[in-house]
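User: I'm putting together notes for a lab meeting next week and I want to include a structural view of one of the chains we've been expressing. I don't have a solved structure, so I'd like a prediction I can at least talk through. The sequence is below, exactly as it appears in our construct file.
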Amino acid sequence: MKLLFFLTRQGGLRRRPFVAVVGALVLAAGAAAIALSLAWPGLSPVWAVLEAALVSFAVWALTSRIVNARRLAAAPDPLTAPTGLIDDVTRTLNRRGITSSLIEAMAQSQRYGTPLSLISLGIDGARGLVERLGSEVKAPVLEATSAALGEVLRLPDRYGRYQGWEFLVVLPHTRAKQAALVVDRLRAALAAAPPVVKGETLALTVSAGIAEFASGQDPERFLSNAHKALHKASKAGGDQARIYRPAPPAKTAS
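Assistant: Thanks for the context. Below is the predicted structure for the 254-residue chain, given as C-alpha cells.
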C-alpha cells in the first residue's frame, strides 16, 4: 500500500484525466502482454496481462513523479514571484512586504513599549530626471538608493520600495531624532556612490518624513504622519528630513 501511495499520490495520478490515463495504461499493457507472450510462449496469457499492466503502471507513475519533481524545482520562489514580497527592480521588500514588516514592528512596539520610527523617503527631482534622461533612469536610481539604505541600516531595520520613487524604512527601538541621523547617513552614502546613467553622474538627494509611533495608533495614521512630514520636506526644497509634529490642541475660549 505504501508503494501504491508513493506511485500514485506523489506521482501525480490524481492530476491526470482518468479516461486518458486508463486508456494509455490499457494500450501499454496490451503491447507489453503481446511482447511477453512472444518472448515466453509458455507464459499464461492472464499472468502476461497482469505483469504487463503492473510494469506499465509503475513506469508511468515513476515518470510522472520525476516530471512533477522537476516542475516543482523550476517553480518560482514565492518570495520573488510577482505576488510575493520582493520588488522586482530593487530586490528589496515591495509594498506588501514592507507594510507587513511595519505592522509586525508596531505590534512589537505596542506590546513591549519600545520606541519605533518610520521614515517615508522620496527621491528629489525624480520627474525631472525622467524628462531629461528617459524612463531607463529609474532602475539605476532606485537601485543606488536601495544600496545606500542597505549600507546605513542595522540588521533589525526593514526597508522597501513602497510606491514609485518612495521607500519606507522601519526602525525598531529608534526615536524620531535618531531616525533623522539615519537620514543624514543615507544622504552621505548616496553622495559617496552616485549612479551613472548615459555617462552622466547623478548627484541624488532625498527628502524624508519621519514619524514616531504612538501607542494605540493604527497603520494608516502612522503612514499618514510620515507622508505628511515627507510632503513638508519636499515643499521646503528637498534634501532634508522633517519630523512629524502633531498639531497642538485648539485652545478653548474661557
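A couple of points you could mention at the meeting. The chain has two domains: 2-74, 95-243. The two ends are 87 Å apart (CA to CA).

User: Perfect, that's what I needed.
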